[in-house]
Write a structure and sequence with these properties.
Helix content is about 20%, strand content about 25%. The protein is an alpha+beta fold.
Amino acid sequence: MPDGRKATNWRKATRSLQKTACVEMADIAGAVGIRDSKAPETGVIKLDRAAFAAVVKDVRTGNLDL
């Protein structure tokens, strides 16, 4: 499972459930995989846990709002 596309436990982000811009996350070999739920074949971003925690913090504080 080098690219993460075959991970079995993809979870949709809570805030994505009612929206069209959906992301999914999965535990991939000790890292966190992130992918587009509508186009999982386009690839996976893998972050170590510290980097993922930093991204979550930035999202929660509004630093990544578009």
